[in-house]
Amino acid sequence: MAAASSLRQNKPCPKRTEMPVLVLTVFLLCAVGFYASAFMANKARLAARGELREPSVVQSPAARLVGRVPNAVFGLIYYPCVALSVAFPVDMARRLALVASLLAAAMSFVLAYSLLFRTKRPCPYCWTAHVVNWVLPFLLLKI
Question: What is the pTM assigned to this prediction?
Answer without folding.
Answer: 0.84
